[in-house]
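Example record

Each entry pairs one chain with its bound ligand, PBG.
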Amino acid sequence: MHNSDKLILSNIKTETHPFRRLRRTRMTATLRSMVRETELSKNDFIYPLFVVPGTNVKKEVSSMPGVYQMSVDNIVRECAGVKSLGIPAVILFGIPEHKDEVGSEAYDELGIVQRAIHAIKKEVPELFVITDVCLCEYTSHGHCGIVRGDEIVNDESIELLAREALTHAQAGADMVAPSDMFDGRVQAIRAILDENNFQNIPIMSYAAKYASGFYGPFREAAESTPKFGDRRSHQMDPANSNEALREVQADIDEGADIVMVKPALPYLDIIRRVKDVFQMPTAAYNVSGEYSMVKAAGRLGWIDEQRVMMEMLTGIKRAGADLILTYFAKEAAKLL
Ligand code: PBG
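Structure tokens for the complex follow.
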């Protein structure tokens, strides 16, 4: 114990009346729940889903136990289940039949995600359907945009992303979520949506998205690992915090309605800064690697999986997230 600590303790004992007992409010479960500062709710959750071609496909992602690639028919069934658990929203990722250099299926009106949106909105109309807007699942090289030489080009790519967002809205999506991290994409998407009478469709931008090792299992699920290079020319350096504020500011200026920080756990400080500075509806993506680590340690018996899951989600909310994208949504909803 430091001398200064001793001094503080002795002050409490001798000079503070009555004796301070912070434990009093922790003594019973009832009072603990009455003074609880953060309440996790099913309403916070957005459940990610991976759509693949075919019928009756349900293939587990090996690095993400409990997460499946599903064909449209099974996705619809899954969505009905998600809704009945009280989860308000899903976010869709598509794995196309064919990939090419420019990710054509991403902005095809009859693409995999567009078909899935139609089917979900027909069968489970109350479920809020969000779409991930990116090219990485659709390009043969696995990059989020058009590649020329060594460069992932910005301005041409955002035109394609805007077309992709438009086809999602036309198919019936309730919200679009660009995840590419190119400059100017929110503005481009807002413009094309407005020109086509979708001025009421909101944009949730992946605003501060880091170049993270925690996306590994997702890339297996979405079959989107880059064939060469990496995403460091557009996704953020994990060491940066002020830059995240500039990224979020840019997206708000361009018309983002909800801003996202991603991943969540190693970036709780960023969530808090973004929330405090901008006071915007703020989302956090509890990404694939965060899910897989808990699942793996749980399976080994090294941690109490359910308890850690709830603690993690509560921590993300406490940090300032209003919305949480999480593969744990169904399991957590069952406990709430
Ligand atoms: C890009 C995208 C990624 C994730 C969501 N959208 C991967 C990437 O940037 O490589 C990752 C989500 C996760 O890890 O759970 N379309």
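Residues 132, 134, 136, 179, 215, 218-219, 231, 287-288 surround PBG (CB under 6 Å).
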